[in-house]
Design brief:
Blueprint lengths: L13 E5 L27 H13 L4 E5 L9 H9 L6 E6 L4 H11 L3 E5 L5 H8 L4 H13 L6 E6 L8 H6 L8 E6 L15 H12 L3 E2 L10 E4 L6 E5 L12 E4 L4 E3 L8 E2 L1 H5 L4 H13 L18 H4 L2
Parallel strand pairs: 1-2, 1-10, 2-3, 3-4, 4-5, 5-6, 6-9
Antiparallel strand pairs: 7-8, 8-9, 10-11, 11-12
The chain binds S-adenosylmethionine (SAM).
């Protein structure tokens, strides 16, 4: 087996797969337009995703995360989970979701082989949640989180994108959730200025989030989770059952440890979230490419992976927004 190692000696063993660009929410920081959706025919079929994953697994990809758009808006997602979880070499299939439809699907997803779930949640206040998401109902997401815990899709991680002047006043409320008996695992994510550079002033640095938590709730003790640790740095408040993670996507560059590729819903392999370079896998697939040819294209993508992103020099992806890539 040839290992998937990029030009900077980083081993790629993780792939995030967007299964749709459609979403039932309209988060203010994620999109400024949801009108140009992909046509049904442009979206990879489950069998096509499976073939790409088989090729990637032969090159050493072991972990997959399904995302979107909103992955649970795609019909029979558990069928895809089942296919991927039973692919030779794949050790884990997880899901990032806004949680609105999680409660009704969690059992079938678990039965199909889903290992874990991350739920995006940016406010604990129903009216603010509705504002941020363009009409979402907080109670649906909370029900989804509870259902995921009951189904033992643990640890259920709650991802909050901290937006200056919008929800930053709730950082302590989220942090307090880690102190409860069934302590939440909360991760604070810096807002990345995707949409034409807008929102650059909206990024709240993780160091500021950390100091406000330490100031009010006590010293953050470093914590080293055994599984599922990506770019986040983890801590715990004293005696907290839950954990706090911090993802400094803008102010802290963690590209040196990057181990991932992204596959867009229309079949483009993206070596870096924050770089527009992509390799089209769908067209070759539909022209009859076999697994060996897919492997060759995936290896080529590794040679094109950038050393690091350029957010701090005002560089941001221009061709696609987050909902079109898969966060
Ligand atoms: N619909 C799913 C969800 O809400 O989790 C998956 C797709 S969504 C694009 C994935 C994640 O990207 C969410 O946690 C969302 O908050 C995050 N996200 C979107 N735009 C972002 C931005 N500009 N900066 C940081 N995170 C962003």
């Amino acid at each position: 087996m040839t290992d998937l190692i990029d030009s900077f000696s980083r081993r790629i063993n993780y792939m995030r797969i967007s299964v749709t660009d459609r979403c039932d929410l309209r988060c203010i920081y994620c999109t400024d337009r949801f009108d140009h959706k992909l046509r049904h025919d442009d979206i990879l079929r489950y069998e096509e995703i499976h073939l790409i994953v088989q090729a990637a697994a032969r090159l050493g990809v072991k972990k997959l995360r399904l995302t979107g758009g909103e992955a649970l808006t795609r019909l029979h997602l558990s069928r895809l989970v089942d296919m991927l979880a039973h692919t030779e070499g794949i050790e884990e299939v997880s899901l990032t979701t806004n949680g609105t439809h999680l409660a009704q699907h969690v059992e079938e997803l678990k039965a199909a082989g889903l290992s874990r779930v991350n739920v995006s949640l940016d406010s604990l206040k129903p009216s603010r949640f509705e504002h941020i998401t363009g009409g979402g109902q907080l109670k649906d997401v909370l029900a989804g989180i509870e259902a995921a815990k009951e189904a033992d899709l643990n640890p259920v991680k709650i991802n909050m994108v901290v937006l200056r002047g919008v929800n930053d006043a709730e950082v302590l409320d989220f942090a307090r959730k880690t102190l409860l008996d069934d302590g939440w695992h909360v991760r604070f994510i810096e807002h990345m200025p995707f949409i034409n550079g807008n929102g650059r002033n909206g990024t709240v640095a993780v160091r500021d989030i950390m100091s406000s938590i330490e100031h009010s709730l006590g010293k953050l003790e470093p914590h080293f989770p055994t599984s599922g640790n990506g770019p986040a740095r983890y801590y715990k408040l004293p005696d907290a059952p839950g954990t706090l993670g911090f993802i400094g996507a803008v102010t802290e560059c963690f590209c040196a440890e990057c181990n991932r590729f992204r596959l867009t819903a229309d079949g483009h392999l993206r070596p870096c979230l924050l770089d527009d370079d992509e390799i089209d896998l769908k067209e070759p697939l539909r022209s009859g490419a076999d697994i060996a040819e897919l492997e060759r294209l995936i290896l080529e993508a590794a040679t094109r992976k950038q050393q690091q992103h350029h957010l701090r020099e005002n560089g941001a992806p221009e061709k696609r927004q987050m909902w079109q890539i898969g966060g």
